[in-house]
Here is the input.
Amino acid sequence: MSAAGAAVGAGGVLAATCISTLVVNANTSAVSILLPAISEDTGMSVDTLQWAVTGYSLVGAAVIITSGSLGDVFGRKRVFQLGLALFVVSCVLIALAQSGGMVIAGRVIQGAAGATILACGLSLLSVATKGDENLRAVSLWGAAAAVGAAAGPLVGGVLVDVTGWQGLFWIDAGVAVLCMVLTFFTVSESRDPEAPRSVDYLGTVLIAVTLVPLILGVSKSGDWGWFSVPTLTCFAITLVAGWAFVRTERRVKAPLLDLALLRNRTLVGATIAILIGAGTINGLMYLLSLYFQDPSTLDFSPLEAGLATLPATVGLVVIAPLVPRLAARFGPRQAIGAGFAITTAGFVLIGLADASWQYVTFLLPLIAIAVGMGLSNGPSSAAATAAVSPEQVGEASGFSNMARYVGAAVATALAATIYATVTANQVADGAGDAAALSSGLAAASWVMAVFSALGLLLAIVVIVRHPAGRGTMSDSAAAAAAHLHTLPTTAAATDPATGTATGAASVDHPSGETS
Here is the structure.
C-alpha cells in the first residue's frame, strides 16, 4: 500500500473507531436519564427497568474479552462490523419498543454490541497505526470515549424534550450505519495468525451464568428477603457457576482469563479498585438521575437532570490532565488513596441528604466524588498494565475492563435495591414521599461510601509500589477514559521488576495481544 493509501486507511480507522466509541459511551451514560420517561410510556416501573442498565453491563462483562478474541481469529473488521450491526438492531428494537421488556431486551443486545465495538475498534486502531502515531490515535480514542460519556446525559435530556426518548436511539442507529459504511470502504481486514483458533465460549457463558443470578438475587432481595430460599438459591448458583468458571479456565487451551494473573498482587488490587470506582460512579449516576426527576423531590425535567449530573461526569474529564503528573510526583498509590478518601467523603455528604436539600446542596459532594474518582481511576488503570510484563499488558487490560463492567452491573443493582427498599419501608412507616426518597438515597450513598473506603484500604495495603507514568498527553487521555476503559500509559513501558524503561508503551488489544 502506498503512503497516501496507508494514511487514508489510518484516517478511516481513526474516524470510524472514535465516532463509534463516542456514540456507544454517550448512549450508555444517557440511559439512566431516560428511564423515568421510558417508564411513563411503557408502564413498567423504574425498579424493573433497572435491568436496562444492569443487563447492559452484565452482557458487556461476558463479551468484552471474547469479542477481542473473535476479532483476532475471524477478522477484526468483520467482528467490528458485526458489533455495529448489532448496535443498529438494538437501537431500532428499543426505539420501536411498546413495552419495558422490549427495552430491556434491546439493551441486553446493546451490551454485547457496545463491548464488541470497543474491543475490536481499539484493536483495529492499534494495528493501523505504529509508534507515536499509535499513541496519538489511542489518545484521541480515549478522549472520544470520555467526551461521549460526559455528553450523554445532556444529549439524552435534550432529546427527551425535543423528540421523545426514542430519538436518542434513532440518531445513534443512524450514526452507527454511517460508521459501518466508513469502515467498509476505508478499513482493511486484519487477523492475528498466531492467535489460538479456539475461543473460550464456555467461559463467556459461565461469566453470564455467574452474574445473572447474583444480580437477580441482589435486585429481588428487598421483596424476597436477603435470607429467603429464592435469594440464597441465586447466590448458590453464582458460587457454583463461579467455581465452574475457574475449573474451565484451568483446562481450556485459550482461557478467557489467565488465572496466573490472579497471583499478581498489584494487578488484583488495581482491578478491584477499578471495579469499585466503576460500580460506585454508575450507581450514583443511576440514583441521581431518578432522584432529581422525581416530582416529590426536585422535579427536574430530563434536560435539567442531565445538566445537574454534569459536575460529576465533566469533573472526571477536567481533572484528568492533572492526574498523571500528580501520580508521577507523589506516587500512584498515594494518588489512588487520596482519590478514594475524597470520594468517600463525597458519598458521606450525600449520605446526610434529607428532603430539604436543593440542588445546590448536592454540588459540593458531586464535585468531591468527581475529583476523587479522577484521582483514583487513572492510576488504578495504569497500575493494572504497569504491574505486568509487556507481553501481559493486553491480558491485564482485558481483565480490568471485564471488572469495570461487573462493578457497574452489581453496584447499580445493589444501589437500586437499597434505594427502592428503604423508600418503600419509609413510606410504610408513614413518611412523606420526599423524606422517604431522600432516606433511600442516603442509605445507598452510605453503602457506596463503605465501598470507597475499601478502595482506600486497597491502596494502602494491597497495591504495592509500581512504576508511575511520565505524565504525558497520552497518559492524560488514558486517565480521562479510565472510568470507561483501560488504556496503556507510559508506565506500561517500564519493566515492573527493575523499574527501568523498556521502550514505547505498547497499545493493548483487549483479547490479550499487544502491538
